[in-house]
Amino acid sequence: MANATIRDVAKRAGVGVGTVSRVLNDSTAVSSATRQKVQTAIAELNYSPSPIARRLSLGRTMTIGVIAPFFIRPSYVERLRGVEAALSNSEYDFIIYNVETVARRNDCFHDVPRQERVDGLLIMTLTPTDEEADYFVQSGMPTVLIDSSHRHLSHVMIDDVAGGYQATQHLIDLGHRKIGYISDLLQESPFGFRPVANRYEGYLQALAHAGIEFYPEYHRQGELSRREARRLAHELLTLPDPPTAIFAYSDTQAFGVLRAAQDLGLKVPEQLSVIGYDDIEIAEFLHLTTIRQHLYESGVRGAELLLGEISNPLSRPQEIVLPTTLVERDTTAPPLLC
Amino acid sequence: MANATIRDVAKRAGVGVGTVSRVLNDSTAVSSATRQKVQTAIAELNYSPSPIARRLSLGRTMTIGVIAPFFIRPSYVERLRGVEAALSNSEYDFIIYNVETVARRNDCFHDVPRQERVDGLLIMTLTPTDEEADYFVQSGMPTVLIDSSHRHLSHVMIDDVAGGYQATQHLIDLGHRKIGYISDLLQESPFGFRPVANRYEGYLQALAHAGIEFYPEYHRQGELSRREARRLAHELLTLPDPPTAIFAYSDTQAFGVLRAAQDLGLKVPEQLSVIGYDDIEIAEFLHLTTIRQHLYESGVRGAELLLGEISNPLSRPQEIVLPTTLVERDTTAPPLLC
DNA sequence: GAACCGAATGGAACCGGTTCCAATTAGAGC
DNA sequence: GCTCTAATTGGAACCGGTTCCATTCGGTTC
User: Fold this and answer.
1) How many domains does chain B have?
2) In terms of domains, do A144 and A242 share one?
3) Would you call A320 exposed, middle or buried from its count of C-beta atoms within 10 A (0-12, 13-18, 19+)?
């Protein structure tokens, strides 16, 4: 009773299994009398088809894999929310592969397309090598990158060079010349996140355009956490000639900077300007000036791209570039005159 | 080449499919010479077994379903992190079923056990009715509740009555007598979250034990969001005889209260004490006094319970109760003397 | 009334694993 | 050398769907 099969239904309705399958899949070639009989039998037996068997014979899993590093970080949560929203209208479920080590990253990249667990892959921030990208393409696994890019794969990119430029330029516009930058790990990062290099690039470009010399002492990098950012900001702010403004790679790190300022009794924004990046939900509450990247939307667009690619596998790689926006709140102001 | 099957491997190795299967599953009854041959063939064909086929014949999905309302709320993210950590050591994946409407809740409760998509179910905060619980039991679906309870199902409960009591008692200990409470929706909530009733109960008990009369005007309820909490706090604080302390159902709501205080120019904690609930990550940064419930741990313990139940289905329902802890920071203090 | 056609239907084969039973083989014991 | 037993091994049957091919049947057409 618990688990009736399609054969039980067929027997009870006095038809063949093919017919039952046709009724289930809304094939038109079934007379309405037969359809009626089958539906009655289905109801009587409280039958529901086994998705696993369906998948096996269809060769599709109706599941999407999402590979995300540190999926509990606020920015990934926002992106996932977008993915969830886009997928909730479809027939697809998603499985999260959380990545916190390089070994795990490599395992995921290698195993997930091979095991036929998923019909498509959404990869966040992690950038595949050329080899890996070709491997995805050749294995026929529809793959979409969010927050990174590769010329052979569809992707939703955030223009982080522009974002970094925007943040720095905002500080310059306010009159700052001594602008610190607290970054995520640049070289030593095991993952080589693309946005890390890009925002740094934007920072350098804005300085150069304004004719401000880059002062290496003002650039600090460390693991992405409030605690570490607080430590680094403390270092910056206790330099003999400290910066008057700090651009932080992420809102989370900006909060660490704010804390350091508080520790040292510096008033924000009067004595120190701080700008973050991401515009995560809590940023508004804390009045943080920041660069908004459309996190939620990046998830939605990425998922849509992937669904399109699954239903139409031959399409050429698409690129979506999402802009960034300056959100001015209360942590930036002109520097004090000296 | 892309997708070799077990039969290809068997042919190439010159053995039967049963033997290949035995090698794959580390059955002992294979001579080492044969094992060698098979492994060579596997390597040559770059073969990896299809999990779907495996699931069909095994009748197991190696996947766990997690039903979570509003999974992007910080407290659920923390719990999920615990689940992910516990599951990452196992062979199981997990699928998130996000619930934001009652219809969706009912769908999930009804369909997920029936479709054989998952081997076990982890349900957060949502409380099954007796009927639903029996349905889970009868369908043989191992089910564990986190942050709610039912006598027929294993669960990880947070002692929210004690937590509500603790929060209120802390304010009383400081000398407050006029204590407001801003709650999640109590009656009208479509989900009937258990913790909502429990924390309120704790609040009432603490007041009663201290001989403080409950003053209905001091109790407000509204949708769980910062914005709504800010509005409600504003109402409370502009009463003719406003409370000197406010207990908020969640940290998120406490932040709304803090904002309302700021709007009205009230100093915290001098003129208003605020205590939250959850101890989400950002609470420490904002120096919020709060009640810590062990969110991450609740996820870990729940997942462990479920894995145990899957491997040993006959066990009786277990109960784990996690305590709550008062975390004193800088948003509570004795009231001003009048 | 015969020939023909299309729609509806039944059911075998298939997806790719696991498992169980029967058959083979090797080795031990006498 | 023969028998018996245990260890290996091969492969059919099965899990529960889908699909395709063959068949049946009712209705046209001449």
Assistant:
1) 3
2) no
3) middle
B40: domain CATH number is: 1.10.260.40
> Which are the contacts of A314, defined by CB distance < 8 A and separation ≥ 6?
none
- pTM, two decimal places: 0.87
- State the nearest Cα–Cα gap between A204 and chain B, in angstroms: 30
**What is the domain-level CATH number for residue B310?**
3.40.50.2300
| A95 CB within 8 Å of a chain B CB | yes
Residue among B73, B156, B69, B65 at smallest CA distance from A72:
B73
A40 and B CB contact within 8 Å: no
Residue A32 has pLDDT above 90, yes or no: no
pLDDT tens-digit series, residues A259-279? 999 999 999 999 999 999 999
C-alpha span between A35 and B274 (Å, rounded)? 63
To which residue do tokens 């957060």 refer?
B124
Alpha helix (H) residue ranges in B174-279: 194-209, 226-237, 251-263
Evaluate if residue B2 carries a pLDDT over 70: no
Domain range holding B271?
A: 160-292
**Any domain includes A333:** no
Q: Once rounded to an integer, what is the mean pLDDT over residues A131-154?
A: 93
Of A50, A95, A285, the CB nearest to B226: A285
The reported pLDDT for the residue numbered B1 is 43
Under the banding of pLDDT at 50, 70 and 90, the label for residue A115 is confident
pLDDT at residue A1 in the model: 43
Structural domain contains residue B276: yes
